[in-house]
Amino acid sequence: MKYITSITACILFCVLCVTSMNSNAIKVFRVDDSASQPVEAQSQLNWKSLLPVGADAHTVEASTRVNIKLDVKPWLGQRGRIYLVLPLGVAETLSVDWITQGRLIPGRLGANRRGLVYQGIINAQILEDVMTLKVSGDGRKITSQQRLQFYFEIEPE
Amino acid sequence: MMLAGKTNLPSATMLNKHKQNMPAVDWRHACVFILIAITGLAARQADAFSFTVAPGARTIFLQVGNGAQSNVATINVVSVNVPAASIGNATPQVMTTNSTQAASTITGNTVCNVPSQIYIAGALRLPTVSAAVAPLQVTAPANLTSGTDTIAFSQISWTSSAIGGTTQDIPAGAFTGAAQLLVNVPANTWLENCHTFSYANTAIAPAGVYTGRVTYTLTAP
Fold it and tell me: Which of A11, A50, A66 shows the shortest C-beta gap to B34?
């Protein structure tokens, strides 16, 4: 009976933990972007300068287009800010910027590895755009293949 | 999530068994497991798109004489006419070339005096910060030849300079009549210089046109 009580207390504790976590992070939610697809899922980083001289002596860059489809139904009618996020990891030496076709905002990832892509009233169930994503960095430091796992998050206002 | 696959919540029977045998601390392990399982579910709320990038390509660049940032088949000629009265008098004879490459291929700045100098440049591109190098070698035959007559290739030497530069990236030397190392080109570094060739003129050889070809080789590690 003592153990059953302990486990019950434990479960309650866990539920409280999760509830607490949700209440602390209540302003940030992951956006379902499972319908988003990059046109080219893989690319080689190209040296910006053929030879290692000048300001871009060691810069490499690559780009891809991404058909963005963000399911924002849960926030329909609300104001909010949506961010593109690239978690910190081995690719943190890479800079990321993007242009769009107008539905989303062009920009770049900041030092906190996220960048604003939408701000305003969520007036559609699905936010769609074509994003041209460019990554660049010091080619000497990118020594192996890097999988950049992006996601979107929303801060309802 | 591997914990989830291997760990089940204890059944009532198991609990009874554990009641007898488990130390009191064991229930905390179950507690941790439950927390991981719940947060794991929370993290699966949405997918993400990914973009995979491969490192920059390994590339190597070598230019001797006329060239560009692409493959060029030109083979330049370095030559000297030794007056009959001067043959073998040990007075060095400065050689000239048919090169028109005065400008640095990468900066466009004038670095060589033409036609008296040959432009030489090399680079190695590697996606690494390590101290990798590409050896730059030159290989000369033992002799210049004119029919069956010969002059040792070691009669020819060179100095190294560059307009606007003070360092000898690719240093001065003399042909040995075999393969020889000129310099190790560090990865992700650009080296260039202009070489002025000279014939030592210590050999007494029959009149004739003596020729030989040297080959420069840059090898990626």
Answer: A11
Please judge whether B188 and A58 are an interchain contact, meaning their C-beta atoms are less than 8 angstroms apart.
Answer: yes
> Hey, what are B103's tokens?
């400008």
Q: Taking Cα atoms as reference points, which of A98, A95, A89, A97 lies closest to residue A144? A: A89
Half-sphere exposure of A43 (CA within 13 A, CB side): 20
Angstroms from B53 CA to nearest CA on chain A:
5
Tell me which chain A residues have a C-beta less than 8 angstroms from the C-beta of B27.
3, 6-7, 10
pLDDT digits (tens, 9 = 90+) for B144-183: 999 999 999 999 999 999 998 888 899 999 999 999 999 9
CA atoms of A104 and B41, how far apart (whole Å): 29
Q: Kind and range of the H or E element at A98? A: strand A95-99
Q: For residue A80, give every residue at least 6 positions away whose Cβ sits within 8 Å of its Cβ, in sequence order, or none.
A: A72, A118, A119, A120, A122, A154, A155, A156, A157
Using the Cβ of A143 and the Cβ atoms of chain B, whether some distance falls under 8 Å is answered with: yes
Place of tokens 């004489």: B65
Q: Note whether ipTM > 0.95 here.
A: no
Q: Taking the model in full, what pTM does it have?
A: 0.73
Bin A77: left if φ > 0, else alpha if -120 < ψ < 50, else beta. left
CA A19 to the chain's CA centroid: 24
